[in-house]
Amino acid sequence: MFIKRILIYFPILLILFLAQSFFWVPTYDEQALGNPERLKKYIRASSGDAETLNPLISADTASSSINSLVFDGLIALDDKLEYRPRLATSWTQSEEAFLVVDPRYRLEKIEKKLPNSMDWLHYIKKLLEKTPQGIENLKSIDLVPGLVVEGSVQVPISGRNGSPEELQGRSLMKPIFYTLRYPDRIKFTLNHIDQDFFNPIKKWIGEEYFEKFPYDDFISAKKKSQYNLLKTNFAKILPLTEHNPIISFNLRRGVRFHDGHEFDSGDVLFTYRSIMNVKTASPRRSDYEPVKHALADGPYKAIITYKRLFSSAINSWSMGILPEHLLNEEALNKEALVNKNDSKKFNIRDSQFNRKPIGTGPFRFAEWRSDEIIRLERNDDYWEGPPEYQEYIMRVIPDPLTREMEFYAGAVDNYSVEPHQVMRFKKDDKYQNFSSLGYFFAYIGYNIRNPLFSSPEVRRALGMAIDVDQIIKHVLYGEGERVTGPYAKMTDWYDQDVKPLSYNPDEALKILRKLGWEKNDEGFLEKDGNVFEFNLITNNGNSIRKNILTIAQNGWSKIGVKCNTQIFEWAVFLKDFVNTHNFDAIILGWSMGVDPDLFQIWHSSQTGKKQLNFVGYENAEVDRLIVRIRQEYDKIKQVNMTRQLHRIIAHDQPYTFLYVSKVTQLLDKKIVIVEPQLDGLEKYKKIYSTRAGDINYYFNKWRKLDFVPQFNHLN
Hints:
By secondary structure, the chain is α+β, with helices and mostly antiparallel strands.
């Protein structure tokens, strides 16, 4: 009887205790009373832990948020989305352009041959002088003598039936070695990049010059049997016209890494080389592949030359710069020896640096307790001046309710509001609130390597079975909008005319039946004895994704698709599933930038392990457009191509594009921007969002006061 009473009354007493304890949770004011040190700490909550604190190899939001405070790039975007100096104080963009000369060619315009390369140079120069724009941009014109070089080019390996051999969906390649007897070339040094520079020159010379160029006279295969394979790559080996854009960075003097070592051009070049090292397996490698060479002109100047037009070039140098002296070959060999690792296999990915980073940023790394906390300390020697906060702490709190309670109690300083809470918090005058349409989108991605998802029609049908409008209405409480493609919705790149998939389960079922799927006795779709069954996974700590998981599962079950669902911790989710392509379908989201370059996410060359096209999407026209967008400097033309790309991807449906949500963040009203005045006093300003909806832009100037300041309408 006694035990029975305990079993009845104990749960009730426990609930009452927990309920009353809620009202006893100390508020921020109570915590801070007599504890001024709390005012010096900024604490934020994260749903998941960081993966690695190395900007070269990280791709998750938690890691990026820490890396942005520990490391500086050469440049960054300002609050108006314009580039501003960081580790580079200034930069210039120019170009070297080249034209291959064949003196044997008879010019129709003058009906004669030009006897030698120097005659060609003088002829072209005179023609340019007739075009004011061309001669104005021309800094110099020179002749580069020919030379002989040895090289190789990768070509697909053919199988017995003549088609390319493949491994895991990728064509196997082999090198073809050649000798190139480089002809003379005219070198044009231009004051600024001009993608149309050769257009008038090609018109003067005649298209026949480029169409019938005698490559055979200059290129020969090492093995005669490989000539035909080599021939298809002649234009790649010897481009007749070549654009080489150049970015010259003037670097900031006197900047030191957190260990006291001075930053210089060697660190910039080392960061580039590390990204390009295949052992690093950096997901950002494609951003730097267009680089022809990177050189230092003394300790405070880095010159980056590109091998082709690349309009997104400048944006890539916002990457955090690594310290060469801690990660070069000598340092890694030493670390491998200390840890008793094989130095030949040991690389940057294995280094303890990734858990104890050292950069030049406003905060120094202090500690990392996995799945608990990452703590940073203020860099008092920061080149731009030390931040107001002395500590920055990221606490890993996967449970949304716990994050909310911790914010109420003042144990964390910011809170990303759940959609159902938005209206309530906007009416709460205890907090600052900031709302904006996010620069991201949510999606369900399909592993196209799985034959089940290889057909665009199948993926379209799956998308039509999900009521996205109901997700926005009931899960997001109206705090979101539908999206249809791969760009942030607020940018010019996004095609507003593309209509979202309609919710139409009947039509979805019709599509699948046309493809041979019919319901079996259990009500599941079946084809050739195989049930239409797959696993849908997502990460823990995101209640919205959990809800989408259930909604998608229910929507698909109505048309006979058997979907199993699983949720994993963030680190496991990335390491064991996303990075290894070990999934069927996945719920995720992309944080997008303002640049139109989507090479990493959508180009077919980026489908390898730890790369960002993890769904394995391949489309030749998409590849072509992505490359052309990268090479286009005219924004109007870029916009036309991005919208074309948008339409193709929307048709192919490698993702079921879901929504972009409105992001609402809360801060205590005591947190302000502090601006020192010339008279030694301080001015407090309200925190505000940038054009991109970012409230953290002025974070280094944030301070938490012990009172709520009063602002007039000018503040």
